[in-house]
Amino acid sequence: MDAYEISMWGLKNHGGSNTVTIDLGRNRSFLAWASVTMIDSLNDFDADNAVVAEVFQVDGVETWKAVYGGEHWGSAGDSSNVHQGAYVGYGRRITFRIRSVHSSDLDSYGMGVVVAQ
After folding, report:
1. Domain count along the chain
2. Does the predicted model carry a pTM greater than 0.90?
3. Which residue segment(s) compose the domain that 32 sits in?
């Protein structure tokens, strides 16, 4: 088994969103997960703020959307919804995404991790 990790920043100065990709080099079975490891409130951390780290895509195809609607996420099927936090599958390129919603109030940092067979 091989393990991979990659950093993600959802920083105010960079629009609050970031995608990063781990390329396994060939199609493989894998377990991937995203974790938020830092939230830094720059102003008022309140109801207009949210942070999400997710396994956004596998080989360019979006993963299942776990949360939608409300004040922060799009309608059903929208790519702005919250995707899987962990994913077990088969593929080559795993894309992670982190988002700081209303990023003028906060910065975030997280990690994408993949264990592949």
Report:
1. 1
2. yes
3. 2-111
